[in-house]
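Hi team,

Filling in the usual template for the complex we talked about on Friday. All components are listed, including any nucleic acid strands or ligand strings, so the model treats them as one assembly.

SUBMITTER: L.P.
PURPOSE: interface mapping
COMPONENTS: three
RESIDUES: 810
SEQUENCES:
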Amino acid sequence: MCLAVPGKILEVRSSGEEQVVGSLATVDFQGSRIEVSLAFTPEAKQGDWVLVHAGFALNVLDEEEAMETWKYLQEADVAQLEAGAEEDAAANRASQAD
Amino acid sequence: MKQQSTQELANRIADVSQQLDRSVQLMEVCGTHTVSLFRNGIRSMLPAHVKLVSGPGCPVCVTSQGYIDVACELAQRTNVTICTYGDMVRVPGRAGSLEQQRARGANLRIVYSARDAVRMAEQDRDRDIVFLAVGFETTAPATAAAVDEANRKGLKNFFVLMGHKLVMPAMSALLSAGDIPLDGFLLPGHVSVVIGVRAYQPIVDVYHKPCVVAGFEPEQMLLGILHLLEQNLRGEAKLDNVYRVAVTDEGNVAALQAIDKVLEPAPAVWRAMGSIPESGLELRAPYQRFDALAHFGLKIGPDYDPPGCRCGQVIQGKVEPADCPLFGHECTPAKPIGPCMVSSEGTCAAWYKYGRIIPNAQGNKETQLR
Amino acid sequence: MTARDTSNEEQILISHGGGGEMTRRLLAEHIVPPLNNELLGPLDDSAIMPIAAGRLAFTTDAFVVQPLAFAGGDIGRLAVCGTVNDLAVAPAIPKALSLALVIEEGLPIRVLDTIVESIARTAREAGVVIATGDTKVVEHRRGDGLIITTAGIGEMRDGVEFGLERIGSGDVVIVSGRIAEHGLAVMSAREGLAFDTELESDVAPLNHLIGRLFETGADIKFLRDPTRGGLAGVLADLAEDTGCSIELDEDAVPLSPVARHTAELLGLDPLTVANEGKVVIVVAERDADRVLKACHADPLGQHAAIVGRLTETQPPLVELLTRAGGRRIVQRPHGEELPRIC
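RESULT (copied from the run log):
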């Protein structure tokens, strides 16, 4: 009975109430971002993947395993790769034109 | 490729099930599993003699009518704002649902996190904020942290109406009653993130049922079902975990400590199942001042079962929704009678939404699940 | 940065709706100039227009969205697009809209200005005029701020015969682009659920895109915009009304990664989430590619895709072929889909 979703920590900052709500993290879900308490995952850091439920991170996830388990996470990678490839191609054309 | 791996798993399930050569009944005890199994069409991929039955896995469904009645009564007070997760607003009490209270002018806010309720209390000291603390062990740590936060901030206008339920006591009660044949449990992935795989040891030791913790993606659920069938084939009853990316043997110690600091197990009333000892959570003595019942001087009243409603048996997996005479006739998502139809994760709601209702030879409606 | 002092901010007052000098000033200074056109200019009780020979499409709509502004749009843009799109799928060429504003006393005039500007811009984009209107002010109630009612007229397209009886097994279902974005964007701006997102409402006028479809000469049998109830709602209606089943391919339904992930986060099924800039098209199979190409040529149809087909299976149901390789039924959502946690 528990909707929890994987997301990536963009940044961690102090909440001022570390003993209670832990640090606060901005977690990204392929373009949507929410503030998440790291009270139950104090070891989590920027760049980590975490499982988020009701505004709290419940566990730190291995990135590769996360990609394997939640297949839709791979969709973003493809989109980003394509975007990256387009940028590279544009940059190449620009430098060739010089 | 995504579909190949789920198809492979489905093929292996068909193989093992054929080797088993008997009917197998597996229970899941998580509303999110109920919905995910349906939404992904997993049921349609299983052989006919692998049966999936839903247990008491929807904490909203098992929230007693008395609890809803108190929530509605509080909602009617002009100075109170009820903060709740979205799941709760349509559950009917004796005098209607929270949604209906809102239509009559009650102040009701849907929140994503218990912390949002604390923030609301901080920002508006003139109003009393009552948070409906419902859910299993996955959600309990958030409630505990919210109360702890409110305590440290010295908030005088934040309260919780306690309604958390614990999964293991319910499963034990079900198994003790021994009413239905079960060949294994698909265990709830996210409750298990918190409590750990070892928490389910008694199910194996005392009741000798195969158990597998699984997540909610299609590959996860199929893999979990496959492992349960393989255990059956080998005549085993063990604890297994296919959701290792998120679930460990000991669970999340910080979350368990957070729960333990603020909350303690207590008897709880499960709608249509009665009172189960040590199956709920209440505030510990030092935090009693945050208890909504204590502060507002209210009590949870008795439940009332509508005549003909078989939710109690559905919740325990004793009957299927289609066996209830009200299902699909008087009781539909548009006009729900019992809790199993009201909650979006209730067994009856899931059957109704994702199964096909067709007229049978007698002209009555029956449900066929693909 | 100092906090904004709103105590002196100009607000709408009851007197603005009284019909007297303050009403005239409100119209003259804040409402008419951005919208001004030949029909509206005279500010008569009725706009006078020539009637086209043939048939008139006539629609009405009310807009009560909260919050008034959200990523990708606001209630003003929504009002114009919602009305224009209802006409466009008739299928008609939208011509003129009426605009009735019910303003709650206390709404900052600055907010009204922004919304009226948005209405004007969207009307220009769609190629329609706001021909007539009305303004009332009500006492402060729930803090909604503004409610908009519209009516719209359009000229029915020549030579097009929509009819449910023309739709049958073998026909193809196309969606003009990525779904669920409007509903999710609006939800992300709601108090209690607020979160940052790249997601923007897809609210847009579809009449130009739909015009392109008819220019192909394809046999278009059905058009509908999947607003409340989402794609699931439209297809459930279609199955019921035609007596045909529909097979929907989950992998083919266009959905951005951020929308997918956000829907997961909120526990929502993207098929049931509202869209305000998408159209569902039913077309004969032989015309499907032509229609798809026409969509792709339009800025609003970049991600158009064939998502399903009609079949003879009885009883008529919408069945989803899931990503996992299974099957399940798709039904009209019961009511407001709420975010889940438990």
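MY TAKE: Residues 2-20 of chain B form the longest helix (19 residues). The radius of gyration of chain B is 21 Å.

Thanks, L.
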